[in-house]
């Protein structure tokens, strides 16, 4: 059931996620998925579809934030467009295949995958792990295959691919600023393809659910997209006055707590 209290909650959630996205340069999917899953259960959605709705709606919300981030990094010349063009075909294919698979997988298994993946992201944040750089040149086939994997995992965990893309480009001897900028550009096709995939594959499953378009919950998408777009610039301004390393650790802890909560709820 939808009422004004839920709309206010989604606006507040969008403001928080947008602020954190601007502050830390992340897409916010790691925060949105477990929160969406809990909220959708309270709203009365079927337990069999809440994780799929959470994933699809999170990716839809990331379209606007990804576009904004892409524009900002492109303006600063930090996007490696040859890498984006090489990885995009694999990303689109991987994300679309993953959404088709996800629509036929039990919510509990997807919740487990999400929790484990976010645990990996949190661990990498704490230990600052990076693979040893490779001296082999980038190839078109290598970019397509890496895009395939990044697109698939990102669609299953509703993340923009930033973590995986930055790690991959670091492995290919790309400096961190260009890695982050290129990652922001790659997050845009992931968000669009994942959203379309969850719309199509969730159409039959949510026909009787109000305010849904496939596995996209429209009120949450609209409220969070608008409020996060407003709050993100404030987070970006604050990021220059706060220690990034400590903030990322706090963000990782929050993601871990929320992910564990979702995992326990579906165990």
Automatic annotation (TrEMBL):
Keyword Transmembrane carried by entry: yes
Subcellular location, record wording: Cell membrane; Membrane
InterPro entries: TM_pro_TauE-like (IPR002781)
Regions that span the bilayer: 7-37, 49-67, 108-127, 139-168, 180-200, 212-230, 250-266
Pfam families in the cross-refs: TauE
Membrane topology: Multi-pass membrane protein
Alphabetical keyword list: Cell membrane, Membrane, Transmembrane, Transmembrane helix
Gene Ontology CC terms, in alphabetical order: plasma membrane
The keyword Transmembrane is assigned to this record: yes
Record family assignment: Belongs to the 4-toluene sulfonate uptake permease (TSUP) (TC 2.A.102) family.
The name this protein goes by in its record: Probable membrane transporter protein
Species of the source: Methylotenera versatilis (strain 301)
Organism taxonomic ancestry: Bacteria, Pseudomonadati, Pseudomonadota, Betaproteobacteria, Nitrosomonadales
